[in-house]
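Input.
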Amino acid sequence: MLPSGFEVVVRGGTEGTGIDAVDWAKRVESLGAGAILPTSMDTDGMPTGYDIPMTRAIADTVSVPVIASGGAGALEHLEQAITEGHADAVLVASIAHFGKFTIRQMKDFLAERGIPVSP
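Output.
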């Protein structure tokens, strides 16, 4: 069993490495990573929300920015990744690419909730 319960996977998420994701995040930080973008294979491409427990476990362990990735399907998911997942930023793909929300809508939503966004 991995200490954090989150495993680093490769080959498009089809092959486990036996490496704990939180330990890996600490390692890449020590190697000089300026930010970490963990993507949960359980939520990527699914519009059900980011993997909050995984994002939080990593964000609470490292001092570099953590960017939540994989799973945004609603504006509330962006807020949750930051407030509950402790992410410093969010990656959005499908909800922007397929026109569900505009970047302006996303920024306005977050700003209205007191989350800083770039202009």
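The radius of gyration is 14 Å.
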